[in-house]
Amino acid sequence: MTTQIAIRLDDRELAALDAEVAEGRAANRSAAVRHGIARLQRDQRYRSEEATLIDLARRGEPIYPDLEGALDLPHPALD
Length: 79
Fold this sequence. Notes:
Layout: H1 11-22, H2 29-58
């Protein structure tokens, strides 16, 4: 489902959207806005994951327990 919304942009914000379209990074203004929202969502996920990792580190728990010992594997010598 999609919902249409109306927003107000100042001249600089609109120019930034139009530049994304003109430079081929977005098909149209709507796509440029969706790209911006996707980046915002990614940032939100990263902040949430970062908070979880910080909490684990503060409690002294392994952050990636499935990788424990991965660096202890034998590696061939580099010439």
